[in-house]
Amino acid sequence: xxxxxxxxxxGTRLRPLTETLPKCLVPIHGRPLLDYWLDLVFAxxxxxxxxxxxxxxxPVRDHVAASPWRSRVDLVHEPCLLGTGGTVLANRxxxxxxxxxxxHADNLTDxxxxxxxxxxxxxxxxxDLTMLAYRTDMPQSCGILEVADDGRLTGFHxxxxxxxxxxxxxAVYMASPAVTEAxxxxxxxxxDLSTEVIPQFIGRTLVVEHRGxxxxxxxxxxxxxxxxxxxxxxxxxxxxVEGET
Length: 245
Hints:
Layout: E1 2-6, E2 27-28, E3 31-32, H1 33-43, E4 48-53, H2 57-65, E5 73-77, H3 83-90, E6 100-104, E7 107-109, H4 113-121, E8 129-135, E9 143-147, E10 153-158, E11 167-175, H5 177-186, H6 193-197, E12 205-209, E13 214-216, H7 220-229
Parallel strand pairs: 1-4, 1-6, 4-5, 8-12
Antiparallel strand pairs: 2-3, 6-11, 7-13, 8-11, 9-10
Helix pairs in contact: 3-5
């Protein structure tokens, strides 16, 4: 199984911090955000991870080249941003026709990606997408979900002023090949997953609520909250360093 970590954003709201630092390398307790994601992915025994770049790609390339995961990480550069769905479509061959993890790497989370993949594998036969959800304290800035008793997505409200609840899309998915096929049918290279694809899968998406930590670090206020809330001394998942036996 493979993962796609979306890391191409410009981090406009985090300037001036992101004027010289890509958003995925913003530090939390001295560790780049991207490292937390790679810990989670490889502790869950995903085979490989693909990271897309756009803004300030050189620091990301240098960071990955110096990391213990360099032999299991692939990079793809987008001269023009393709949108979440467009990046999936452009790299569809990377996943070999299998389900894959898709995650926005500008969130800080402690989700168990092995358990999340297992929930996807055991999903109802007529569902194609598994979506991680969490309870947010800023529902107006999130995609808010309505969910049936059996866990199916029944409504999706992307950043509306009066959201019907606080169960939010965590922007972490397990996607079957049917999702990629739906993106391809749109017929454009630039596609937004939230507004153009997820609405097609209402009723065909399993929602899994994460009870642990999850926060978007896209603004100075949310970054400060993440640094205050996230356990500073939490040991990361043990990932074998390249060359270990």
